[in-house]
Amino acid sequence: MAPLVEAREVHKSYWLGEKEIHVLRGASFSLAAGEMASLVGPSGVGKSTFLHVIGTLDPPTRGSVLFDDRDAFAMTEEELAAFRNRSIGFVFQFHYLLPEFTALQNTSMPGLINRQPREQAEAQAKEMLEIVGLEHRLEHKPGELSGGEQQRVALARALVLKPRLLLADEPTGNLDEATGEGIHQLLVELNQRLGIAAIVVTHNPRLAERMPRRLRLTEGMVVEV
Q1: pLDDT tens per residue, range 109-140
Q2: Residue 7 in contact with residue 59, Cβ under 8 Å?
Q3: What is the dihedral of CA 29, 32, 36, 41, to 10 degrees?
Q4: What's 153's domain CATH number?
């Protein structure tokens, strides 16, 4: 059975003036459907770059990223955008919620972008906000929510279309320790409840160690810890 997602000898480099900066140097790994892994490594090593490539936001310089054994970057731009919107959810250190929209409106946005009827998009959003424990905050705007609640809305938005893969880049980085613990526990519960595969980048070694799989990015390569 093919893994859900597989990176094969992924290289990624950038040019800084006349100097080529090599960030990923043949990174390879695979993740099964429903599997959860942490990704650690020092600041600046390329963890966010790796997530961007895995999430099909940025093509590799060399190598390939496969979903269900299909090369993601062999798709047309339109096919890839539709695939990404349908199959991959993203959560970042900052929530990127639209400040003038309520929690319900922010969470409904992926469905509306996916051309769902508003009634269907809002029904799915309400369901997901209830799952993350925010059924009492539907009409609150981001400025009326705590940091932990804002990140829960961001999680609900990322998962509202029931993607097969969640990529979380330091989702607890802007939160205090207790709130961060709560978000981490929620990620584990959502993985178990919804069966969504997840890669979680974190600087917190205690959180990383609790994941079923632990990966480290070092010298441009992904290794099992």
Answers
A1: 999 998 999 999 999 999 999 999 999 999 99
A2: no
A3: 0
A4: 3.40.50.300
Do residues 40 and 205 touch, judged by C-beta distance below 8 A? yes
Give the integer Cα–Cα distance in Å for 108 and 85.
13
* Angle formed at CA 97 by CA 96 and CA 102, multiple of 5 degrees: 175
pLDDT number for residue 94: 85
Q: Which helix (H) or strand (E) holds 91?
A: strand 88-91
Q: Which domain holds residue 82?
A: 5-224
Amino acid symbol at 192: Q
- The total domain count for the chain is 1
Residues of the chain with pLDDT under 70: 1
The two structure tokens encoding residue 65: 């990223």
Backbone angles phi, psi at 218, to 5 degrees: -145, 130
Sort 72 into a burial class: Cβ within 10 Å, 0-12 / 13-18 / 19+: buried
Order the strands of the 70-71 sheet from edge to edge.
19-31, 5-16, 62-67, 70-71
CB contact set of 72 (below 8 Å; sequence gap of 6+): 56, 64, 65, 66, 80, 83
Amino acid at 7: A
Question: Taking a C-beta distance cutoff of 8 angstroms, is the pair 201, 36 a contact?
Answer: no
Residue 87, both tokens:
């199959």
